[in-house]
Amino acid sequence: MILRNEIKAEVINNSPGGKYMFNMNLTDMLRSTMLGALDAVANDILHMPLRMPGHTSIWWMGILIVGKGIIPKFGSGIIMGIVSGILAVIFGLGKEGIFVFFKYFIPGLLLDVLAPLYKQKFESVVVGATCGALISLSKLAASMAVGIIVNIPLLFLTLGLGYVSISHVIYGAIGGVLAAIIIKRLKPRLSSWD
Fold first, then answer.
1. Is the pLDDT of residue 65 over 70?
2. What is the pTM of this model?
3. 26-188 domain in CATH 1.10.1300?
4. Distance between CA atoms of 127 and 131, rounded to whole angstroms?
5. ∠ CA 79-172-100 to the nearest 5 degrees?
């Protein structure tokens, strides 16, 4: 009888509707993990020969905003940032070594902070562009901080910091606008996700 009650309690605690990290259920955790992995893989595979700083923010920030737009729970951005940061370390992306994790984690963290300020309205083009630009700048700031800590020569970056910042803002905003358009198209089709 005691064993039967313990098994029943274990089944209830591990049910699909149970809450996990950040009060998210298992399906939201898996979706966030999937989009975080997509973010890291896209950064590794998609290379556009633009030779412009921050051009990867088009898809990088776009994927993060799409993920946050379709999973509007606190913690989804953090989970996407953690997963993409761990994969970036494993794939060896960037010249920062293990500290490249922060370059991927900080935008996800900032996205979770910004989402309540904009009432989770990521389908709005203005909100998407603003959040895309801000989280792209946070990636630049994290990259600068890691570069200073690891003593990576950043002379080329500091000489044109204004140009680099503007470039990150523009490409992050483009990624945010594209994400807002995608979210607006996806939301009606994902009504059964919860």
1. yes
2. 0.84
3. no
4. 6
5. 50
